[in-house]
Design goal:
2 copies of one chain form a homodimer. Chain A is α/β, with parallel strands linked by helices. Chain A has 3 domains: 44 residues, lambda repressor-like DNA-binding domains (434 Repressor (Amino-terminal Domain)), CATH 1.10.260.40; 125 residues, Response regulator (Rossmann fold); 130 residues, Response regulator (Rossmann fold), CATH 3.40.50.2300. Chain A is built from 12 helices and 12 strands. In chain A, the strands form 2 sheets. Chain A has a 6-stranded mixed beta sheet with strand order 2-1-3-4-6-5, with helices on both faces. The longest helix of chain A is centred in the middle third of the chain and has 16 residues. Chain A is elongated. The mean pLDDT of chain A is 95. The structure holds a DNA duplex (30 and 30 nucleotides).
DNA sequence: TCCGAAACTGAAAACGCTTTCATGAAATCG
DNA sequence: CGATTTCATGAAAGCGTTTTCAGTTTCGGA
């Protein structure tokens, strides 16, 4: 374990001053050929790496982006994370990642922790905070949030049009002749949960069908929640021929609940999800779902933040959803 | 956007010296009641947060743990990540996360990037590097790797006994009367892939069965790989009544491949996985598998590293696997 | 041959904190 | 009551960089 070697050691070894070494490193001013070589040799010899902390202290920028996710183990957020990772690849930025565990309080505390660590910007996946709170945080550091739309100088929100997407999912079921359509909703209080519920209702109303409270079960975006919702739905004894689940994970849970009761998909019941996780492809049968470009969403979030940090003010493009027809829906 | 307020501003406001403010913050020496209050008031008034960079520069410790995962979107690594997160919760440490994308080269580069950022320690999930390389890195910073076993002062490896686990998985199939058992292997070159393959073979040999190359298909721990492996297995025209997949994700892919061909599980074919991901529970039918305590593995990795950083040298306890019987295996 | 511009360089200050070091005041002790 | 600890504090040094500032050379042009 060599002690820390500094720019001063290099300078001594190369027979120049520390300033010159620094200039060599940053490349901001020209350094004579002969000294360049001496410095390069010294760096090589001493195996010197500049201390990023000192650099950051001086420059004020840590080249670090803070990420607040809600669940580190979630395949959905994982995909978003991967998108951000790709966006920042090769830029010298790194990711400091924390989880809010779907708790507004924890999300806020952890975001502030990121700020205390002087991250250059923050991305929040599906924030549980209000627009106001996000705006308030954005006074300290530029922010990007996913799962809702928003467009302010220092705080932008990126999301598909959840309401419209849910509308089209429900409408697709209606087009297939379903009239009694149940909904497994998302985590209560989240804007996207609410938007999807509204889209579902609007589609029904547009088709002249009155939404039935017995056909709406509370979920929480999790597999277990989806399974519980099936119980709730069946116990309420409202008959239905199709289910629109607020996300694929709920759909997966629901699928098991149905399997347990011997209800076949799609022969007895049609099922449609939301997100298009990788696993939607591997469900039995493969799940028809609304594709949310999750990876691209993360990538877009990363790029948008990078732009903000670079002072570029390009207009944000919002991601688009898409219906992916597989095999879990059948004509009624 | 207030300019940076420093300990000196606080000192001025409170009518004390910067040293005293620092002492108040660190609590290392006693400060008189009266000044404590004055400082507290000043901090409140100015909304002061100490600059972590300056602290780190001084102390040499960043209170940051670097994590190298192989795939940010993986449910397996996600669960491990969650474990680490829990282990460090409340300790003041934060996580700098990078991905090696299963590339030895990239893993090494990114690990060095973490070192350059002066992380206090590194955890690698399922490292693609050799023991030697890990040992070499550990000279610069304490390391914990998962997915293999290892016990050195500054580098410890944490894993279930993969060979024995695979042995028992295969043996379970044998006990159920299966004689022709196929194997979908993991990513080539990984130590755990190799260990699981060896355990599979040993179980067969112990039962007096000669391993058959036609019954071993190459996978890569992914869903797509599992599906491809099914094609490979069926095209090789070796008959078999059960499959041992190197992980649950492969099993999920295999399950879809079988579904496509109208092969029922477990009626026509038994299937056993490895890991016990959440989704194993939600497969149709729920998957019998070897449970690897993934979350605990991450947690253990976090705790072990924390111990190393604190200079405690407790003997490492290795995690244990367990057979979880669900519904994907039937007597032959 | 002289002059201003350009190229190159070192000393020193600054980033914001912690930690000796030194010192005066207060508390303890025989 | 005088001598010794202990307590509380400020000044200053230091963590490892980058960035003025202030030259010194070097060079092209007149």
């Amino acid at each position: 374990m060599s002690q820390n070697i500094t720019v001063l050691d290099v300078a001594r070894e190369a027979g120049v001053s520390a300033s010159t070494v620094s200039r060599y490193l940053t490349g901001v001013t020209s350094v004579s050929k002969i000294k360049q070589e001496a410095i390069a040799r010294a760096i090589e010899l001493l195996d010197f790496t500049p201390n990023v902390l000192a650099q950051s202290l001086k420059s004020g920028s840590t080249k670090t982006i803070g990420i607040v996710t809600q669940a580190l183990e979630s395949p959905f957020f994982g995909e978003e994370l991967k998108g951000v990772e790709q966006a920042i690849a090769g830029t010298g930025y790194a990711l400091l990642i924390v989880s809010g565990h779907w708790q507004a309080r924890e999300e806020k505390d952890h975001a502030e922790l990121l700020i205390a660590r002087r991250v250059d910007g923050i991305i929040i996946f599906t924030s549980t905070a209000s627009d106001k709170q996000i705006q308030s945080l954005s006074r300290q550091v530029p922010m990007v949030v996913t799962g809702r739309r928003m467009d302010m100088p220092r705080a932008v929100g990126l999301a598909v049009d959840n309401e419209q997407a849910a509308f089209e999912a429900t409408q697709y079921l209606l087009e297939q002749g379903h009239r009694r359509i149940a909904h497994i909703s998302g985590r209560v209080g989240q804007p996207d949960t609410e938007a999807r519920l509204q889209g579902y209702k609007r589609a029904l109303k547009t088709a002249g069908i009155k939404p039935d409270a017995k056909l709406i079960a509370g979920g929480d975006f999790s597999e277990a929640g989806g399974m519980l919702a099936i119980n709730q739905l069946l116990e309420a004894r409202g008959s239905f021929t199709a289910i629109f689940a607020a996300n694929d994970q709920s759909a997966l849970g629901a699928r098991l609940g149905l399997y347990r009761r011997g209800i076949r998909v799609p022969e007895d019941l049609s099922l449609i999800g939301f997100d298009d996780l990788l696993l939607a492809n591997y469900m039995l049968p493969p799940l028809t779902t609304i594709r949310q470009p999750t990876f691209e969403l993360g990538k877009l979030a990363g790029q948008t933040l990078l732009n903000m940090l670079a002072g570029k003010t390009e207009t944000v493009v919002q991601p688009q959803f898409e219906l992916v027809v597989r095999e879990s829906v059948r004509r009624a």
